[in-house]
Design brief:
Layout (H helix, E strand, L loop, with lengths): L4 E6 L16 E7 L3 E7 L2 E7 L2 E5 L6 H16 L5
Parallel strand pairs: 1-2
Antiparallel strand pairs: 2-5, 3-4
């Protein structure tokens, strides 16, 4: 056994919209990023077109739970709203 790992994969540059990852030990989670696509999006009650990326999370529930995963994805969402600050 070794230390737990989190793997990040980006298949967006290959044109893939959504990544559904399969985790293998010692991974405890895999975060998948798809391509950026223009989609209709409502902001402040107004419909417009925005660049949107789909981010997925696959996690081993023996090591973590859905609440931790939800907080992680919320943090990723918040950070990607202002990428110039990264």
């Amino acid at each position: 056994m070794s230390d737990a790992t989190l793997t990040v994969t980006n298949l967006g540059d290959q044109g893939v919209e959504t990544v559904f990852g399969v985790i293998h030990p010692p991974q405890v989670a895999l975060v998948g990023f798809g391509r950026v696509a223009d989609r209709p999006w409502a902001v402040d009650g107004l419909l417009g077109v925005r660049p949107v990326v789909t981010v997925t999370l696959s996690a081993d529930h023996r090591a973590t739970d859905g609440a931790v995963g939800a907080r992680y994805l919320t943090a990723v969402d918040r950070l990607l709203q202002t990428p110039e600050e990264l």
